[in-house]
Amino acid sequence: MNIVLTARSKRKRKDMGKGSGPSARTLRVDLSRNKMASEERREDAERFIGGRGVNRSILLRELNPEVTWAEEENLIVFGAGVLVGTMAPGACRTSVDSKNAFNRGVGSSNFGGHFGAELRYAGFDHIIVSGRSDEPVYLWIHDGQAELRSAASVWGKTTWETEKAIKQELEDDQTIVACIGPAGENLVKPSCIIAEGSRAAGGSGMGALMGAKKLKAVAVRGHGDIGVAEPSRFMKGVKDALRKARDSASGTLMREKSLYGAFCREEDGLWDLGIMPVRNGQDDCWEPERRERVSGGHTDKHRKGMRACFSCPIGCEPAYELSDDIGGVLRGWGFWINSAMAYAARFDMTDLEKAIQSHFVANQLGLDGDNAAAVISWAFECFEKGMISKRDTGGLVLSWGDPAALIEMLKKLAYRRDIGDLLAQGVKAASEALGRGSEEFALHVKGQDMLDGIRTRKGWALGIVTSPCAGRHLRGAIGSGQAQRISERDSTYGDTEYRDQARYVLWQEQNKAVEDMTGICCYLGQWSGSYALAPSDYTALTNAALGLELTEADLMEIGRRVHNLEKAFNTLHAGFDRADDYPPKRYMDEPVKTGPHRGARLEKDQWNAMLDEYYELQGWDKKTGWQTEEGLERLGLRDVAERLKQQGRLIRSS
Amino acid sequence: MRKLKFIDKNCYGCRMCQMACSFHHSGRFGLAGSSIRMRKGDGLTGMALSFDASCDSCKNRKVPYCVEYCPYGALQKEKKGHGKG
């Protein structure tokens, strides 16, 4: 029987009057008490615009630092970017923020597709989920109303089955469903939320966070609309941005061949950047004759079409059809550069069809590809070194390059079978439990499993290791592409040098925060991909939409505030300090073995100097890594400084 | 009335046409307020598209909004003819 409760959005057509700024229409859902309400978070929105910014502000205010991720009191906050649902090109992203299941700190993920637009058309910009349901439920949001409905019939089903079943139950095949699979239900930390079959809100154990609340899915559908404060100014910004997207040569390639198909051909050089670890990071260079077999150029024969996220002119998501092992056909979407890192390079696996199939299986089970591949490849290395055996794996031999073993391990992880139960805790906890020296090659940052290779490119490494969401590349991680574009870059700068990286990392943190507040996808922006849009475009669109007169510097400063909210959350909730801003031991001790970057590693002295430079630019204390009173006050975050001061974790002067 | 041509294999499903149409009618962005009805097809990609009676073919504009803002060339003007395609 469904529990049908209703919360009506308070505002309908007056959402963006001239100069009114964003209002952050928020649906509050208490799963323990079966209660819902709607409210506006105008103060949060005025300070942090929308999306990830408003989400983190809510969490910082409302979540008790003592609460752990699986407890009833934890909160999960969804937030569509403030431009999502308009014609701002690429404005499709929704942030999901919470506590990180791996480490008590910042849990943060972000997904594209059509969810955010439907949420906003349904009358809400944010959803705060608290409590825990006794029975599995899903949240159905439609046209200013919200209902909790029984998810008993879909509990245990894959994400693909769940989406289909919910659409059938609601008798609306246009509804957008974001759901968890068996991995999230089973509280497996390397899990995610999947929408529309492939759009993943990954990292931080996001699937397990929903599973702990017995929240199987959020389904959204809206027939409303969204206005902007200054329509003609806004449409000029849209036209400018569309022209830039059209003129982007790399964007055109992505539109035709997908990101992986466009940039990971053997001749592209991406394989030689040193960012794709092989055999659990035993090397960062994959032998050319092996990687060539899965390179992007081979995707053409499997790709059956392309699809775009909402309002996106780049349209980078491929659809694939593959043969399965028993004469049938497998169909699905996606396969990104990190999918090849996860399911090919990391396992020395040279069968492209099987790598794509692994990606489909992970999506169906609701596993986070990055985190799952990281912990499973650690298990493969343990097997290689004789630290575990067939007794631990249910008889499975874990050998590099064997796709059947990889796919079987994905299932064991999602269902916690055999060693999958240990791996479900993430590589840090698993290696501590196993011991036997396996900690030496357990690759995690701040307790969360990491995918990326970081020994070669130092700015890339700095951004990943200092990321508030723990070892992930979507904060300050930067390569030469961005540095060239933003640059006053001097002639001594190089990707493999330590010096002068910090200021670019700082820039990228702010840029990414702006993208996540507005909801514009980084593949249109400056991180990787089309490089079509820049902060000047985000500023023009945001000002016109909200009736504001922010300068580009103002907007980037707000981005900096958001990054500082996350930093403060980590200090308050997880107790992180400078000691948590170091790379995994393997990446400091073991150099890259082969290829153009042979010998590269992260040297401790030079890392320390780079970290000092980074903290100084941030206005953070070099000794502790904590924020300073002066730095936070300069950003207008006195309230955050007060919280830190109360816990004795604020430095009075830098 | 101008005739518009929809080339389904070109459509990526980004919904820009619907939002542009909605903007034409109301100055706001949405799907329901558009004259264009779009549904996902049964396949992995590709959309089914139709125009409802509220479409005025943007008669005061040289290029209809939906054609102008389609980033994929899926909506095009027919050179001659009447009615919606």
Tally of individual domains of chain A: 3
Oligomerization category of the chains in this entry: heterodimer
Instruction: Kindly identify the CATH topology of chain B.
Output: Alpha-Beta Plaits
Write the CATH architecture name of the largest domain in chain A: 4-Layer Sandwich
Helix/strand/pairing category of chain B? alpha+beta
What is the residue-averaged pLDDT of chain B? 89
List low-confidence stretches of chain A.
11-19
Q: What separation lies between the terminal Cα atoms of chain A?
A: 58 Å
- Taking all Cα atoms into account, the compactness measure Rg of chain A is 23 Å
CATH superfamily of the largest domain in chain A: Aldehyde ferredoxin oxidoreductase, N-terminal domain
List the chains of the largest interface with their residue counts.
A-B, 40 and 26 residues
The CATH topology of the largest domain in chain A, please?
Aldehyde Ferredoxin Oxidoreductase,  A, domain 1
How would the global form of chain B be characterised?
globular
Polypeptide structure, described:
The complex is a heterodimer of chains A (654) and B (85). By secondary structure, chain A is α+β, with helices and mostly antiparallel strands. Chain A has three domains: 25-221, Aldehyde ferredoxin oxidoreductase, N-terminal domain (Aldehyde Ferredoxin Oxidoreductase,  A, domain 1, 4-Layer Sandwich), CATH 3.60.9; 255-449, Aldehyde Ferredoxin Oxidoreductase Protein, subunit A, domain 2 (Orthogonal Bundle), CATH 1.10.569; 458-646, Aldehyde Ferredoxin Oxidoreductase Protein, subunit A, domain 3 (Orthogonal Bundle). Chain A is 39% helix and 13% strand. In chain A, the strands form four sheets. A six-stranded mixed sheet of chain A has the order 2-1-6-3-4-5, with helices on both faces. In chain A, strands 8-7-12-9-10-11 form a six-stranded mixed sheet, sandwiched between helices. In chain A, strands 14-15-16 form a three-stranded antiparallel sheet. In chain A, strand 17 (444-445) and strand 18 (448-449) form a beta hairpin. The longest helix of chain A is centred in the C-terminal third of the chain and has 23 residues, at 552-574. Residues 11-19 of chain A have low confidence and may be disordered. Chain B has 85 residues and is an alpha+beta fold. Chain B has a single domain (4-77), classed as Alpha-Beta Plaits (2-Layer Sandwich), CATH 3.30.70.20. Helices cover 19% and strands 21% of the residues of chain B. Chain B has helices at residues 16-26, 65-69; strands at residues 4-6, 29-30, 36-40, 47-51, 75-77. Chain B has a two-stranded antiparallel ribbon. A two-stranded antiparallel ribbon of chain B has the order 3-4. In chain B, strand 3 and strand 4 (47-51) form a beta hairpin. Chain B is globular and about 35 Å long. The chains are: A alpha+beta (654), B alpha+beta (85). The A-B interface holds A 85-87, 89, 114, 117, 121, 173-174, 222-228, 231, 235, 238, 242, 245-246, 255, 304-313, 315, 319-321, 331-333 and B 12-16, 19-20, 22-23, 26-33, 39-40, 43-46, 69, 71-72.
